[in-house]
Design brief:
It is built from 8 helices and 8 strands. The chain is α/β, with parallel strands linked by helices. It has one domain: Aldolase class I (TIM Barrel, Alpha-Beta Barrel). An 8-stranded parallel beta sheet has the order 1-8-7-6-5-4-3-2. Helix 2 packs parallel to helix 3. The longest helix is centred in the C-terminal third of the chain and has 15 residues. Bound molecules: D-xylitol-5-phosphate and zinc ion. The site of zinc ion has 6 residues, from strand 2. D-xylitol-5-phosphate binds next to strand 2, strand 8 and helix 7. InterPro entries: Aldolase_TIM, Ribul_P_3_epim, Ribul_P_3_epim-like, RibuloseP-bd_barrel. Its cofactor is Zn(2+); Fe(2+); a divalent metal cation; Mn(2+). Pfam families: Ribul_P_3_epim (PF00834).
Length: 220
C-alpha cells in the first residue's frame, strides 16, 4: 500500500510567527515541511534564504523539504544543507550541469529532487532519474501560493509514475500547486505519493482537521 506524505508549504504561513506555524503543522500531522525559496529572477517572487531555513529547523523534527526556485542554484546549495535541509529540489533550467548539481546535493548528505514546471518536458529526466530521490511535478507555474491546479499535469504525473515503477527504486513523486481536499484523490490516482499544500492548509483555522481531511480523501 502506498505510503502517502503531506508536505505543508510554509509559503502561506504567517511569516511573523514562522516558528510557531512550522510547529503547528508538525503537530497537526505533517510528514515534511515544504520550504519555497524564490529569488525574483527564476520566479517572480522573493521569499526566504538559508538563514530563515536554519531558524525554523529547531521548531520541527520533520524533514525540511527545500524547493529551490533560484538560478543559478549551485552556489547556495551548501548553505541550505548547513541550514538543515533534508531534501533539496532544483529545477533543471536553473543549472547548466544538472548531473553535477545532483551529485553536489548528495555529497552534502541530502536527498536530491528535480522539479518540472508545467511546460517542462519529461526528457530532462532521461539520464538522471535513477540517481534521484524525488521528482517534484509543478501543477502550477511556480512563484505564488493559492493558484489553481493545472489539469494536464495529471498526464505528466502518470507518465513519471510509469518511469519510476520501471526503474523499481523508491523515488518519491511529489506534486506542488493547487492541491486541495477535493482534488488530492485524483492526483494520487495519477501516481503521486507526496503532496505539497500551502493555502489549502494555512488558510484554514484547524490545520489538524485539514490534514486529516487530506488523509481521509487519500484513504477513500
Ligand atoms: C509555488 C510553490 C508552491 C506553493 C503551493 O511556486 O512552489 O509550493 O506554495 O501553494 P498552494 O498549495 O497554495 O498552491
Ligand atoms: Zn514548492
Amino acid at each position: 500500500m502506498t505510503q502517502y506524505k503531506i508536505s505543508p508549504s510554509i509559503l502561506s504561513a504567517d511569516f511573523a510567527r514562522l516558528g510557531e506555524e512550522v510547529r503547528a503543522v508538525d503537530e497537526a500531522g505533517a510528514d515534511y515541511i515544504h520550504v519555497d525559496v524564490m529569488d525574483n529572477h527564476f520566479v517572480p517572487n522573493l521569499t526566504i534564504g538559508p538563514l530563515v531555513a536554519a531558524a525554523i529547523k529547531p521548531h520541527t523534527q520533520k524533514p525540511l523539504d527545500v524547493h529551490l526556485m533560484i538560478a543559478p542554484v549551485d552556489a547556495i546549495i551548501p548553505e541550505f544543507a548547513k541550514a538543515g535541509a533534508n531534501i533539496i529540489t532544483v529545477h533543471p533550467e536553473a543549472t547548466i550541469h544538472l548531473d553535477r548539481t545532483i551529485q553536489l546535493i548528495h555529497s552534502l548528505g541530502c536527498k536530491a529532487g528535480v522539479s518540472l514546471n508545467p511546460g517542462t518536458p519529461l526528457d530532462v529526466l532521461d539520464y538522471v532519474l535513477e540517481n534521484l530521490d524525488l521528482v517534484l511535478v509543478m501543477s502550477v507555474n511556480p512563484g505564488f501560493g493559492g493558484q489553481s491546479f493545472i489539469d494536464y499535469t495529471l498526464r505528466k504525473i502518470e507518465a513519471i509514475r510509469k518511469r519510476i515503477d520501471a526503474i523499481g527504486k523508491p523515488i518519491e513523486l511529489e506534486v506542488d500547486g493547487g492541491v486541495k481536499v477535493d482534488n488530492i484523490r485524483r492526483v494520487a490516482d495519477a501516481g503521486a505519493d507526496v503532496f505539497v499544500a500551502g493555502s489549502a492548509i494555512y488558510n484554514t483555522s484547524d490545520y489538524k482537521a485539514t490534514i486529516a481531511a487530506f488523509r481521509k480523501a487519500l484513504a477513500g
